[in-house]
Amino acid sequence: MRHRFESPSAHLCFLILARRELYGRMGI
């Protein structure tokens, strides 16, 4: 198990991008 992105900011950015993509697909 590799932990390259341990910084919380990286996790937040990833969550925001994933959430944005999900909303885009749902059409919200």
Attribute tags:
mainly alpha, 28 residues
Task: Give a short overview.
The protein is an all-alpha fold and 28 residues long. The chain has one helix at residues 8-26.
Describe the structure.
The chain has 28 residues and is mainly α. The protein contains 1 helix and no strands. The N and C termini lie far apart (35 Å). The mean pLDDT is 81.
Secondary structure layout:
Layout: H1 8-26
Shape: elongated
Strand fraction = under 5%
Mean pLDDT: 81
Give the CA-CA distance, first to last residue.
Answer: 35 Å
Helix content: 55-70%
Low-confidence stretches: none
**Main sheet properties:** none
Query: Number of helical segments?
Result: 1
Radius of gyration: 12 Å
